[in-house]
Design goal:
Length: about 220
Amino acid sequence: MQKSLSSKLVLFDLDGTVIDTAPDFVLSLNNILKRHGRATLEFDHIRSFVSEGSVKFTEIGFEITRDHPDFNKYRNEFLIEYKNNLTNKSKLFAGISSLLNQLDENSIPYGIVTNKPFDYAEPLINYFNELKNCKALVCPDHLQNSKPSPEGILLACKKIGVDPKESVYVGDHPNDLIAGKNAGTKTIGCLYGYSLDKDETYPESIIVNKADEIINALKLL
């Protein structure tokens, strides 16, 4: 490499950053909607809500709010269906495998800090051999407060034994960038994911359009 990587740890968000899970989210929701005789939703219409999780998907799919008497019933159906489809169509974003290889080659550990519950995140990560060297997986189950709280990032740094100031957090949601900033890490925002707005500015983060740009962004930090 022409310029070395100075960071000692790289932490990633999961959905929309490392793995494109949107196809299985949408498939699962539409399966449940069809089961209830409701119209299915277009992929592009709901892709941007993946990072908001099952609550948002239930609200959008059934056009109800969380105080609706059937909300929990529909949400639980969706969660069961999604767990059955975790690895049906989900895939690593193009460029992630090469990025992880380069981190391994430079002896830079990496981990994942996600708002996805452990029961869903762990089997998803285990499915992809490219993620075999992940040094830490931190989920809401392990925390008092999820992102945008920095708690998860700080816990991952502690588990791996690296100062947050020598770490980078990579994510596709404004809350990822806030959490990284509050934890004291440098941050990289991913426009290829689900939630960052290409028309917005994120002045304290390096912004990438594609996953294969992350390695160069790391060199700039």
